[in-house]
Amino acid sequence: MSLWIAATWGLVGSAVSEALNLYAMMRPTTESKGRWQWPWRDKRDRPIVMFAVALRALAGTGLAAAASAGGLATTAFATFTFGVAAPLVIAKMFDQIRVLDRPSTEDNQPGRSDDDAA
């Protein structure tokens, strides 16, 4: 199988994976009062969500092409599977990263009465 065909099957697999992910984020919930909703809370978040979707799709495409070039994936189904798996693995890896809120600037002012160091 040529590298371009493998990359195309990887892209198709990534697109299927991302479509299912977007469906899960958009489906109606009790929080949305039974209405479908976009996966971003604010319109300013839209570009970053779309950028993340594109990066995961490209990662699946690249993984499928690399697996085919290395002889690991020799069939269309195998490259499709690599395309499906890559975005899911990336999403699970990023789910493990903890995001901490920054303390507000008024909490860090020196000379406050509740400062333990004084």
Task: Tell me what the structure shows.
The chain has 118 residues and is mainly α. Helix content is 58%, strand content 0%. The chain has 3 helices and no strands. Helix 1 (3-26) packs antiparallel against helix 2. The chain is elongated, with a radius of gyration of 21 Å. The model has no long low-confidence stretch (mean pLDDT 83).
State the gist of this model.
The protein has helices at 3-26, 46-69, 76-95. It is mostly helical and 118 residues long.
Q: Taking Cα atoms only, what radius of gyration do you get, to the nearest Å?
A: 21 Å
Q: Strand-residue fraction?
A: under 5%
Q: End-to-end span in angstroms?
A: 71 Å
If you average the pLDDT, what whole number results? 83
Assembly state (oligomeric): single chain
pLDDT < 50 stretches = none
State the major sheet. none
SSE layout and pairings?
Elements: H1 3-26, H2 46-69, H3 76-95
Helix pairs in contact: 1-2, 1-3, 2-3
Quickly list its features:
single chain, 118 residues, mainly alpha, 3 helices
